[in-house]
Write a structure and sequence with these properties.
The chain is mainly alpha-helical. It is 73% helix and 3% strand. The protein has a two-stranded antiparallel ribbon with strand order 1-2. Helix 1 (4-35) packs antiparallel against helix 10. It starts with a helix and ends in a 10-residue tail after the last helix. This is Branched-chain amino acid ABC transporter/permease. It holds the Pfam family BPD_transp_2.
Length: 290
């Protein structure tokens, strides 16, 4: 039997990790909610962002958190350009083609990273991962605390953008009724590109929060996106609130699974949750029936 302190620390660490997972899932669920497609390039784009954070630190010694200032707009621009000038034109308005294009884009990005960086694993040469915050008898990882706070802040900011700005209203209009939005003068292709760009910007923030404690190689993003897919299904496809709540739940489940079964088997609990949700509530916690 584990001491209460260990269980509390496991729960808190799970919540903090889950918040960053939720940030990765936000981009995935936002793209699905507006474009109504699954972005198979999501993991590869996360890997690109993680390599950008590593490069900024290794080459010019920019702290990963300060790197957000440059990498977030860079990834937004990359996402906007890919959707506007590659994915959109190549798909010819067919959702099935979009899936194939994003899958092809994922393969191109991963192999491009493999050609540039080989298969070597890289990490930041920093002591940040060892820093802790003492909360009474509890010891919490400083990078995870920062990641938790930043993830909640970004989620709140995204909610404000979607609900309190003209761009957000345009995004919601296109998500609800594309043809109607086009008829009232909304440039749908631009909204699609902005949405894809916002999804990539969320990945950039997540990469900056992950890199102090994680490593990167050309396949790193794939593991995180498998978890993100589970979060999206658990929270409900297209739901921002669902992505946040689902991420927190999955983080706690993973933490306790790792505590009980060992780190190598920690993700078993995640995929058991995935199967149960598909069996019991396929629409997710916050999803609506079609």
């Amino acid at each position: 039997m584990y001491a209460p302190q260990i269980l509390i620390e496991a729960a808190l660490n799970g919540l903090m990790t889950g918040a960053v997972y939720a940030l990765i899932a936000l981009g995935l669920t936002l793209v699905y909610g507006v474009l109504h497609i699954i972005n198979f390039a999501h993991g590869a784009l996360l890997t690109v962002a993680m390599f950008a954070v590593w490069g900024a630190f290794a080459l010019v010694h920019v702290d990963p958190y300060w790197a957000m200032v440059g990498i977030v707009p860079l990834m937004f621009g990359l996402g906007y350009g890919l959707q506007r000038f590659v994915i959109g034109p190549a798909s010819h308005g067919n959702d099935n083609n979009v899936l194939l294009v994003t899958l092809g884009l994922s393969i191109v990005l991963e192999n491009g990273l493999l050609a540039l960086f080989r298969s070597d694993t890289r990490a930041l040469d920093s002591d940040a991962a060892l820093q802790v915050i003492e909360l009474g008898p509890l010891l919490l990882s400083t990078p995870r605390v920062i990641g938790f706070a930043a993830s909640l802040a970004v989620t709140g900011l995204l909610w404000l953008v979607l609900n309190r700005t003209d761009t957000g209203r345009a995004i919601r209009a296109v998500a609800r009724e594309k043809l109607g939005a086009r008829l009232v003068g909304i440039e749908v292709d631009h909204v699609y590109a902005v949405t894809f760009g916002i999804g990539c910007a969320c990945l950039a923030v997540a990469a900056c929060l992950l890199m102090p404690t994680y490593y990167v190689n050309p396949r790193s993003g794939a593991a995180f996106v498998l978890v993100a897919f589970t979060i999206v299904v658990l929270g409900g496809m297209g739901s921002i609130a669902g992505a946040l709540v689902g991420g927190l739940i999955i983080g706690v489940v993973e933490s306790f699974s790792g505590l009980l079964l060992g780190d190598s088997l920690g993700q078993i609990g995640i995929f058991l949750i995935f199967i149960l949700v598909l069996l019991v509530r396929p629409t997710g916690l916050f999803g609506a029936r079609a």
